Fold these 3 entries.
Entry 1:
Amino acid sequence: MRAGFLIPLLAMTAAAWAQAPAMPPPHDPNDYPNPYHVEEGWAKLGRTFGGISAVDMDPDGKSVWVFERCAKADDGCAHDKTLNPVLKFDASGKLVKSWGAGAFLYPHGIFVARDRHIWTVEGVSQSGVVANVVHEFTQDGKLLRTMGKSGTTGYATDRFDGASDVLVAPDGSIFVADGHSDKTNNRILKYDPKGNFLLSWGKLGSGPGEFSAPHGLAMDREGRLYVADRNNNRIQIFDQQGKFLGEWRQFGRPSGVFITRDDMIYVADSLSSEKNNPGFKNGIRWGHIGDGKVIGFIPWGEYNAIEAVAVDKDGNIFAGFTNVPNFRKFAKN
């Protein structure tokens, strides 16, 4: 649900904040090549996976981090304090790090920063478990920082409601996607590297800069912020001051979004259907940031499943599944 592995910090010239490419002309949203196959059982966990809406790449570009719901689809970590929900797999699928047993209630988002710190986001579960907190850890699970207060809801700048994702920009600025439904907050908040509040934007709605479930965040090389505005069936694009630059609907109903360091965008669509996003099927779509055109699509038959996506330096795709829990690798044919 992320920016690329190690995105270089570019000078913020006027061109960096140029208008995002317009949405391409209409095209059959499911008629794209699929040059991938599933490597079932690639990740060797030794137990059943829980729901996964949070996957990110390590800065090495080949190891992958997962924030998992303790062997259950929804609120396993609220009930089982013996399982580690933060997991790191190497390129062979071997589990090389795991930690966090008893420390989390509802895993929802993960981000691996340039300094290799691990940021986690907990929101509000389907069963009503409330966490609404963001943590920063070392790679070995030492807690460094907490934003928000677990078990609370609110609209203040130090409280969240339906927190979904976090992103740390190359300059250290922290962005939080706060909102998961029309009953929670629907906004983006920005903090400085020390965690001091800077600004926020957004409210429930469907207009430019409004949200209905801002579910994922990513940033391109020019520093533009991409928000998976899920219930509005679009990705919204902003500069880092919250200025609206454009919207894309060609990637489906986005749950997770990931941008590689060569500016390829990958979008996990778990909820498209004839009812809520006519014409679109669920799966993973990808394309170029430069022109916004979709060039590939992995269709997936399980509805309400594939929510998280990340991509390694060789183009392998990793996907997290929630209501039909799993973690899969899609390798190139």
Entry 2:
Amino acid sequence: MAPALKALKPTRRSAIGGLVAALSCPALAGLRHEPDFDVLIIGAGAAGIAAGRRLLASNKKFAILEASDRMGGRCFTDTTTFNLPYDRGACSIHLPAQSSFAKLAAQNGTELYPDPERQQFRIRGRNGLEKSLEEIHSKLELEEFYADRVRCYAAIAQAAAGKDDISCANALPADLGDRRRMMEFVLGPYRFGAELTELSAKEYAVSIDRSPARLCRQGVGALIGKLALGVPIKFFSPVTLVDWSERSVALITGEGVVTARAVIVTASTAFLASGKIRFRPNLPGAYASAFEKLKLGSYDHVALAFNGNPLGLDANEVVFERGHTTKTAALFANVNGTRLSLLILAGRCGIELADKGENAMTEFALDWISGTFGSRAKKALLRVHATSWNKDPWTLGAFSAAPPGAQEARKVLCEPLNDVVWFAGEAVHQTLWGTVGGAWQNGERAADAVIARLDHKPPRAAGG
């Protein structure tokens, strides 16, 4: 039998030491006695860290098993590529007044500031216009855009109120004309990493109002790292099997078997759908179907560091183009007032470019910058880097988006298996799916439910 930890408040060192000991003395199926841990968490992303903090405060014996060499999951602040904070994944925190994540940031001295939500439109080939003419056109386009967006949101909400769940694309007003392509990109790929044809109107309707948002100068991933201090994490520990056939659960890792009274699984739905973590017995059909339905969208950044400000944009301005094809992008300029800008490649176009590799992504980005801002902008480029979340072996995509008829899948994943396996993450949150705040809050919800079960108490009410 694997040795148990001492009955003391767990620390990072003691919990990891106990985990290593447990893995070195694997439990045998059918011979389980006292579990090695109260709770094990699979994945050290936002949901996993949030669950870990709750468990740490409850004095439960627990540890997080992380497959990769870092924490944060899809919230990753890279500080080396450009020698400044560069969020390769999540960049903003939505609805801060309702977000426990945002409140913890403030308590820990991390600066969050309002996203100015400034949006400016430029059209290819217009760079030769006089400045005054360009400003007039941009203002008209902006007013046009806001009016169209309000109409589209209203049409989606109206469709969501109906009996049948249709795609957002089928709900859009029919009179958008040549502005339809841009609106489809802004509402679909740019916002949720998926085409509007692939998004449920009923799901979309509950996500329309996510303003205001906050930005983090230090980086969202860096904030998660700060909040993870004291939480025991064992890196390079991928779980390949979850055996939930008894009243305790056994996890198989590359180093052996470790057991717990409960497990919280925070791996992405795409990773779970891939079968890289097997379950014994097999998952009930509703759970397996939920993973398949809640596929991850495609959402990548091509980060561009410029010499100076050749684009002539303010900090955190967003630029779209009125494209006539689906091969388009959006620019998040001068992030946090730095020289770094992010070109966002998302949806079907993003998938196609990511499949071709980083060179294709950067080539598209440079052509887009030149076509929108002129060749001088391209000449001022100092360095470029492209993410590829679809190819990340531990996530296999960006964030979840449900097609028509699949909105019930999130509710399914809120229910535990045999009272020993819980699922958590952005995909499980009913309203804030696709956000770091949603992932964090859902990790807290799962941990609270597990603690209540272990203590034989009703779980406290939480959003979820």
Entry 3:
Amino acid sequence: MAAGAALALASPCCSLGERRFIPAGGTPYQGTDEELLEEIQRASFDFFWNEASARTGQVKDRALAHGGDTRRMSSIAATGFGLTALCIGERRGYRKPAEINDRVRATLKFIANLPHEHGFFYHFIDIETGERWAKCELSSIDTSLLLCGVLTARQHFSDPQIKDLATRIYERVDWPWMLNGGQAFSMGWHPESGFLAARWQHYCELMMIYLLAIGSPTHAVSAETWNAWTRPVVSFQGIDYISGNDPLFTHQYSQAWFDFRHQRDAYANYFENSVKATRAHKLFCLSLHNEFPDYSEDLWGISASDYEKGYTAWGGPPRIGPIDGSIVPCASGGSLPFLFEDSIRVLRTIRGPYREKAWTRYSFVDAFNPLNGWYDPDVLGIDLGITMLMAENHRTQFVWQTFMKNSEAQSAMVKAGFKTVPD
């Protein structure tokens, strides 16, 4: 096996299924935390630049980690992360400002003319034609992820056409339509069969949907919808926090744009809730050490991602999905603002001893398993995106500060009952 890889060896004295983990060898990461975050963000930006259509600006759902990908399926959620990545890239000088400005304008022009229903978009589309991919759903959450990127770009760039296009795209969305006569939003719609039965009705990544809808200046929903979803409490090793039975990313996505620091509504301080959820998730991973001995202070983190058999939603607590000892870098990457020292320790470990296979031209592979030597050949746009955005929020708060300049975001939080709380 190549140098730097980890081995999982079956010992003759061990019971069936027991694993003995030999940590990866190789040199630890030598740079500073800031240097590592810069490397991650720069490489992630390259994905959002290279794996998007130069003509339409739409970003691939996934791509080969080493480049050369020819797939054409784009994700509107990845494009939302990509628009925000372009803002970060312009600010950090990753490409010439004029080039980035042109890409953003082209992206918004294409989005403004995409097939839609009441302003909502299909989850997956052809990267060049914009046609609906297969028979995928019109998605309320993926449209919201796209809109967060659209509104970030509106605030960051001074180009009047960018501002006008972004406003038109957001104000076109008919949020009451997606309620489909209920109090909680439907998860989506098919032209063949109508609205999905599933609704956004318990705490998860849904906060952005409700706040974007409450703040809409053209098709708003009542602020009472903020109370339409439940907030179940999970308890793990003495930590109590609001969470559904969902992967860790649900505590990250809305908070990539909406700044919940020092804010609470009638129910919680959601930033501190995500801190607790991240700490509980780390402890959950460590609790599996006897079963998966790679899980340690240096390597932990499971979120919805690829694994050897495809794509899955997994994590805990409570335990969900086919957990097999895999490490998902965006689990710790998306948690940087919540639990920095613990999260950066994992990223330094992956970038150091595991770098030969887990680090690629586009930052970290989507997932890998040190117990059996499996390394994902792909990267995913949404997973690179949450890591890039949360790295920037930890470093400068740029995404939070830019997005929250939108008056609609500010008014939505006021209408939902948020109040500033002291440190």
